[in-house]
Amino acid sequence: VFYFAVGDFSNANQWVIRILQLPEGGERQDIRDFARLFQAFFQYQLGNFDVNEYLVRSTYRYMTRTKRYHPFERCMMKMIQQSLQAVTEADHKRIALEFQQNLDEIRVQDTAKAIPGLDEMYFWTMAKARGMTLREMFEDNRQNNVKNAEGQGED
User: 24, 42, 115, 155: which has the highest count of C-beta atoms within 10 A?
Assistant: First the structure.
């Protein structure tokens, strides 16, 4: 998650690959599923579009076969597929905004707290919509939290 947060998608992808290469033991299957989704996402971010088309199809087949194709997974896969077809920066922003709206709907559900990657993807969409890097988004959020904390201390 650290490498994702600082926008180092290459190292983030290497860690996802490590997770996927671990022997399956049944424990924390949600993290393995999250890793599959993020592998496709990282390949998109890295510009590996040929590899990504294969990963999107493979991840879709896996999620549907194992009955793990829930709203977050559907939403994320749709965003990646649309992004692969996007041509302009305006297309990418529109897709990010639609993705953010879909994530907003998912985040209000009781089960949202248990979805790995949901908050991270939400920050990514906010950064994309504002034309910021993920690192800038996190720094902006951190500064706002500090200001809010300082403002509360003055009461």
Answer: 42
Query: What letter does residue 113 receive in the DSSP assignment?
Result: G
User: Vertex 28, ends 64 and 1: CA angle to 5°?
Assistant: 95
Q: Does residue 12 surpass a pLDDT of 90?
A: yes
CA Rg, the chain, in Å?
Answer: 16
> Which residues have C-beta within 8 Å of that of residue 56, sequence separation ≥ 6?
40, 77, 80, 81, 84
Structure tokens at 23: 């022997």
